[in-house]
Amino acid sequence: MPSPDDHWLDEEAGPVVRPYALTRGRTRASGETLDLIAIITAVRGVRVDPSSLDPEHLAVLRLCRLPASVADLAADLDLPLGVVRILLGDLQERSLVAIHHPIPPARLPDVQILKEVVDGLRRL
Amino acid sequence: MDSAASDRAGRPGHMPVTIKILIAGGFGVGKTTLVGSLTEIRPLRTEEPLSEPGAAVDRLDGVERKSTTTVALDFGRITIRENLVIYLFGTPGQERFWFMWDELARGSLGAIVMADTRRLADCFPSLDYFEQRGIPFVVGVNCFDGARRYRADAVRSALDLDPGVPVVLCDARQRASCRDALIALVEHALQVLSRRKEQAAAAAHAPAR
Q1: Domain spans of chain A?
Q2: Which residue intervals of chain A are DSSP H helices?
Q3: What is the pLDDT of residues B161-173, one digit of tens each?
Q4: Could you report the per-residue pLDDT of B80-130, keeping only the tens digit for each?
Q5: Cβ within 8 Å of B, A 90-119
Q6: Is there a contact between B84 and A120 if contact means CB atoms under 8 Å apart?
Q7: What pTM did the predictor assign?
């Protein structure tokens, strides 16, 4: 029988810090809602004072040194989308990330890109 | 001068083009399996804690009021080439998560609506959703082991589909089969978008009377 001193707070216990504690209770980002497939890129050449940011902000910045989508960031950080959006809003306010909004298919300048997608899928 | 940085900032052509495709259908119809068969990375999942909208109908016996619940969002990624990436999102199956669909559907290229011939009615709400919003979709009939096989046109008439909507038989566990369903969707979306562009152009050029 396991003793009470065993690790009762294991992975199955879930996150120990409630996700929205990371955002100080905020549940909505300040700006517009970021699309799941918006591409985020850390702005280069900006000096970041690590003490002015939370570890989660720094983790986001590390992950988007190369362009990464909002959905990818949420999965990689294992954080809810809502939390990631708030963190990104904070970083955007400080001009630390660039956000590239996806083009809706109806406004694609050229539907040829979809033919390229079909050809690419056939090669899978 | 850091030329790489200025390149990245100044040339939008270098940013990835991302395409969003939804995998819809009833609970347990094989959406997660299909995403898993196609994705180049492990199927990703993000948990979204929800407050009010889900809680209102999320009653459990003995629990007067549940303030939060979570919805898991499955997604996968297919890189066509550098800077051209497809994201697949499985829509939450339970009806109480419907409010999330609008966010998922916004800007999407289209959807594969998965159907199980043993419970066809489960996909009706998905069909209605995409029809009403004019989002291109195909129906993927998941051929479960032990389920009676039907021809695509039999499924089409049972679902009372518009003649233009493709119906494909697929096996969500087989990558090639899922890929073919995805190709059918992208080709269908391409047709729908091209037709809309032509109609818009014709309307713009019509002589004013």
Answers
A1: 16-122
A2: 55-63, 70-77, 81-93, 112-122
A3: 999 999 999 999 9
A4: 998 899 999 998 876 667 778 888 899 999 999 999 998 999 999 999 999
A5: 98, 100, 102-106, 108, 111, 113-118
A6: yes
A7: 0.81
Please list, residue by residue across A53-81, b when 16 or more beta carbons sit within 10 angstroms of its beta carbon and e when fewer do.
Answer: beebbebbbeebeebbbbbbbbbbbebbb
Dihedral over Cα of A65, A98, B88, A117: its sign: negative
Determine the residue type at B140. Answer: G
Residue B169 CB contacts under 8 Å (≥ 6 apart), including other chains: B140, B141, B143, B149, B152
Architecture of domain B17-40+75-202 in this structure: 3-Layer(aba) Sandwich (3.40)
Q: Which of A37, A98, A114 sits opposite B20 (nearest CB)?
A: A37
Domain spans of chain B, in order of start: 17-40+75-202
Rounded to whole angstroms, the Cα distance separating A73 from A70 reads 5
- Look up the CATH number of domain A16-122: 1.10.10.10
Strand partners, B140: B114, B168
> How far is A74 from chain B, CA to nearest CA, in Å?
6
What pLDDT is recorded for position B145? 77
According to DSSP, the β-strands at B137-142 and B167-170 are parallel
Cβ(A28)–Cβ(A86) below 8 Å: yes
DSSP state of B63: B
**Distance from C-alpha of A89 to C-alpha of A83, rounded to nearest angstrom:** 10
